[in-house]
């Protein structure tokens, strides 16, 4: 991307306003915490003291809006404690400029390294740097420093108390995460009806897995419906994919394909109903016609028994229908996938309709549930965070570079701001550290958004002040209203929330006795200077993602190779350990896929180029690796039971896949051509389709799909510069020809009076309208 296009994208992103579901009750509750602290301080002490004491309540309230699966009251307490410590240390060191600058640099560095623990920790830690810069401007002694620190911590305590006394949608975020997982699989099943090889984004499943980890205290109070149901969505995904795939499921045309489409549509309806039930805490309502579609006689059920009773029985080797099952058109592997899908859907409905009863049986030992995924408490998580920080202490770490930029920008901004405006110079480093993020695009977009929001906010606040001439109490009330509006629109866009935050600051300073004409010009100009300083810091010491794309691609290839090998190996020797290995490899491959997607999205927004991998090659290579993972996912549906028949040839192929993909990952890093000699030899040594039963034919067909994906990867990265140019020209020519043909057909349809309609529209799946992370945080 050129610099001009990058800057246009930055402006668009920074000033964008997203449509999100607002949470007025949560915003009012957080604003009430600010009002309590502000009102008590204003009544008992002084307006200037009230202005500083409101910082803790406002920042703690802001922290509760970050995406975290811990209870919001815990986040509020942690934020209040961090703000109090930074305030006290700032007061202690404020007497000596050199000491304070050293402390500021160290504190900023630690705040930057906190991003190793996740976006929420990074954002909250950055707020403590801002607190250190603001509170030291207030004159006072050591005793007053302790007093201010205690009051700021009490702001966090007030917010936590309000959350405890007035809960809003308790477990709502966890319910939404689980419901989104089912809704995502429902959308996937619906898309597979028309595109049997449609891609699937596992982001919702990954989020649901994160939400499933709970602390010991949460585990005692978690609703039963949130325990043990996530695995169903995980297992349904490969089932619907295998049923729809022409290679391992229903043929591309004919009665079997029509039946598969019926089952996929019914599965989507059931999953959407389950998503609504989980989100709202109600019973699932599924129309009877949908349940009629899901009635299927499994292979070997001559008496027409329901699929739930026969799901684990092994189908006949030749897949031929007998007895009552002749009414079912699906055959062979497609029938296996259908039976598996119907069984899982029945379990989904059981959970959605009778979650309490299911949990009670689990406690009595009548059914086995997945054990809790435990999340450490805040105290026990400290060693984990320190380990993550140590891992980031390497020259190529994005987090380390971000921390070093913060450590330099904060002291420099403090000195520059002090020279330009002795009274309000701290706005320069505050603006800089609050907009800085570990990546280029977010840093620049937030700088633009902060300046635009500040400009609008101070303009609105100035107009209100000139019209009303408020006293201290009215200024405090206006500040509380601004805080409530800032909380309300926090997830709609950084620029919008920053406008109300800027107004909040203007009203607070006015309550402290400062005139608007003394603060507004400085506020705007110094915020602009802070944003420019943050931008320059990234240019001087960048952390470009583009040069690391080959490493990310190699990591993704190796992870998906291990996953593909683990799945095939499970056919060679079925066992519980094999299933555990498949699950672990799947999670590793998803993590590598997510890292690649995030890195590639960042690289597309950076004004730099990769000399050895252009965008088209990266997309083709990523598509080939996705096909490798998809082939493994299709085989997951047909994994044999622990006492199932082994497929000895699968072991040799699995070893070849794992060895060749590991070597290919090293070749990709070194820009060498990957080769698949061992995989090809192992597949040639495997007997043809005429031998073995359905199980062996399925796994061999899956092995062929894996080899095809690996060959596509070689084609994507193994091309000469001339071939790349020719390929790019051919693609462009085909795209233009397709557009011309489409326009020509549209013109003929209009002229002839015949309408053209695509596939009938599908019911809109339920979407998550709840909390999304604010701009700059990672989901």
From TrEMBL:
Composition-biased stretches (Basic and acidic residues): 724-748
Domain Integral membrane protein YccS N-terminal: 82-189
The protein, known as: Uncharacterized membrane protein YccC
GO CC annotations on file: plasma membrane
UniProt cross-references to Pfam families, sorted A to Z: FUSC-like, FUSC_2
Cell compartments where the protein resides: Cell membrane
Keywords: Cell membrane, Membrane, Transmembrane, Transmembrane helix
InterPro entries: Memb_transporter_dom (IPR049453), YccS_N (IPR032692)
Membrane topology designation: Multi-pass membrane protein
Segments forming domain Integral membrane bound transporter: 414-536
Spans annotated as Disordered: 304-325, 724-779
Similarity remark: Belongs to the YccS/YhfK family.
Membrane-spanning residues: 21-42, 74-92, 98-116, 123-143, 149-168, 403-427, 447-465, 495-512, 524-544
Coiled coil: none
Principal subcellular localization: membrane
